[in-house]
Automatic annotation (TrEMBL):
Family: Belongs to the bacterial luciferase oxidoreductase family.
Protein name: LLM class flavin-dependent oxidoreductase
Domain of life of the organism encoding this protein: Bacteria
Transmembrane segments: none
A Pfam family this chain is assigned to: Bac_luciferase
Organism taxonomic ancestry: Bacteria, Bacillati, Actinomycetota, Actinomycetes, Micrococcales
The keyword Oxidoreductase is assigned to this record: yes
Species per Swiss-Prot/TrEMBL record: Herbiconiux oxytropis
Alphabetized InterPro entries for the sequence: Bact_Lucif_Oxidored (IPR050766), Luciferase-like_dom (IPR011251), Luciferase-like_sf (IPR036661)
Protein keywords: Flavoprotein, Monooxygenase, Oxidoreductase
One term of GO molecular function: monooxygenase activity
C-alpha cells in the first residue's frame, strides 16, 4: 500500500484576505517537497475556477512546478474538468506534462460538479456527455496513428497525416501507452466508476463509509469484468484523512484545534450535511459517512476524528490503517487531504515525517501490491 495526498487546496485564509494566492501556491509546493523528502508516494491537485476556498484553476501548472521541486513523488490531477477544456489542446498539454515530469504524471478526468464553474463556461447538465466525448478524443490523440477524424457532438478532430515539411504531428506520451488515468467517485454505484471500469482507468473513492466503499469496488469490478478487463485492487485509491503526531492525544488536538478541524467544520461538513434531491429522494451526502442507525445531526468533527479518520501516534495509525485495509479487502493507495498549516508549519512537517518514515514502511506490505507485486502504472486495468 502507498500513502499519498490530495490538495484542493483548502485556503480559508486566502478567502479571509490573510494569505495571497502566491502563498497558497507556495504551501502546495512545500508540501510536495516534504512528501518527496520523506518517501511518500503521490500528490494530486484539484481544478476549480470560481471557488475561492479551493483556488486552483490549473492543476497542470502546479504539477509542472512541483515536478521541478521533487524527484520521486508522483504528481496527478484530481481532476482535469474536461467540459471546460478543448480536449485536443488538453491532450497535447498533458502529453507534454508527461515528458516534463519524466513519467511521474497521473491523469485524472471528471465532469465538474460546482454549478458556478459550469455557469461561467456555459456548460449545463450535459457535462457527463461532454466528458465522455472528451475522453474519447484524448485517448485517440494519445494512442491512434494519424491521420484520423472524429466528428463528435461537441468537438471535431481532424488529425492530419505526418508532414515531412513540418515534421509532425509528432507528440506521443512519455509513458506507454499513456499515463495512468484516474476517475473519482462518491456514490456507492458511482457512474464514473462504471465508466472507469469500462475504460480500464483507475478508481479513486472519496471519503465515504465502509458500506459505500465496498459497493463502489463492486460497481467498478462488475463494469471492468463486463468490458472484458481484469480489475486490479492495486490501482484502487481511497480517500481517508490521516494525521500523525507523537501521541494519540497530541494528534487529536492538532487536528481538531488546527486548520484541519477548521476546514472540516467550516467547509466540508456543511456540504456533507446539506440536504439534496436525488431522483425525488431527499438525502444528505454525509449519510454515506455514518454508521448504521446514526442521524445526520450526529455527524460532527469529534465523531469523525474518533471513529472515521485515521489519527493518532505512529503505532495507532498503523493499527487503524491495517484494520481499514483488511475490511476493504486490500487497496493500492490511501490518500489524505492536505490542509494549510503554513502558520504552524513544523506541526505539518513532523506529521509528514512520521507518516513517511515510521508509518509507510510498516504498511508497505498491506493491500494487494506486497513486495513482489508489479503494476504497470500506465495501464490501470489490464485487458
Amino acid at each position: 500500500m502507498h500513502l499519498g495526498f490530495f490538495s484542493p487546496p483548502y485556503a480559508q485564509a486566502y478567502v479571509d484576505g490573510q494569505r495571497t494566492l502566491q502563498e497558497v501556491i507556495e504551501w502546495d509546493l512545500q508540501v510536495a517537497r516534504w512528501a518527496d523528502e520523506y518517501g511518500l508516494h503521490e500528490l494530486f491537485f484539484a481544478e476549480h475556477h470560481t471557488i475561492g476556498h479551493e483556488p486552483n484553476p490549473a492543476p497542470e501548472l502546479t504539477i509542472a512546478a512541483a515536478a521541478r521541486e521533487t524527484t520521486r513523488l508522483r504528481l496527478g490531477a484530481a481532476a482535469h474538468l474536461l467540459p471546460y477544456h478543448n480536449p485536443m489542446a488538453l491532450a497535447h498539454r498533458l502529453m507534454y506534462l508527461d515528458h516534463l515530469t519524466g513519467g511521474r504524471y497521473i491523469a485524472g478526468f471528471a465532469p465538474g460538479s460546482f454549478p458556478t464553474d459550469g455557469q461561467m463556461f456555459g456548460v449545463g447538465p450535459g457535462n457527463a456527455k461532454m466528458m465522455d466525448e472528451a475522453i474519447d478524443i484524448i485517448m485517440a490523440i494519445w494512442t491512434r496513428e494519424a491521420p484520423f477524424r472524429i466528428d463528435g457532438e461537441f468537438w471535431t478532430v481532424d488529425m492530419p497525416a505526418h508532414s515531412e515539411q513540418w515534421n509532425g504531428p509528432h507528440l506521443k506520451p512519455f509513458q506507454s501507452p499513456h499515463p495512468e488515468v484516474m476517475m473519482t467517485g462518491v456514490q456507492p454505484t458511482s457512474p464514473t466508476f462504471v465508466d472507469a471500469g469500462r475504460r480500464g482507468f483507475s478508481p479513486m473513492s472519496q471519503q465515504v463509509g465502509m458500506a459505500a466503499l465496498l459497493k463502489q469496488w463492486e460497481t467498478y469490478e462488475e463494469a471492468a469484468t463486463g468490458a472484458g478487463r481484469t480489475p486490479d485492487r492495486a490501482n484502487w485509491r481511497v480517500m481517508r484523512d490521516v494525521f500523525v503526531a507523537e501521541t494519540d492525544a497530541e494528534a487529536r488536538r492538532l487536528f481538531i484545534e488546527g486548520p484541519a478541524g477548521r476546514t472540516w467544520d467550516e467547509l466540508v461538513l456543511p456540504t456533507f450535511r446539506a440536504v439534496r434531491d436525488r431522483g425525488g429522494k431527499k438525502y444528505a451526502l454525509g449519510e454515506l459517512l455514518l454508521d448504521p442507525g446514526m442521524a445526520i445531526e450526529e455527524l460532527t468533527l469529534e465523531w469523525l476524528v474518533d471513529n472515521f479518520f485515521l489519527i493518532g501516534s505512529p503505532d495507532t495509525v498503523v493499527e487503524k490503517i491495517t484494520r481499514f485495509d483488511e475490511e476493504l479487502g486490500g487497496i493500492g493507495a490511501l490518500l489524505s487531504f492536505t490542509f494549510d498549516y503554513s502558520q504552524e508549519s513544523e506541526t505539518y512537517r513532523r506529521h509528514l515525517e512520521l507518516l513517511g518514515r515510521e508509518v509507510a514502511p510498516r504498511i508497505a506490505n498491506l493491500g494487494p501490491r506486497g513486495d513482489a507485486a508489479s503494476v504497470d502504472a500506465s495501464v490501470a486495468v489490464t485487458a
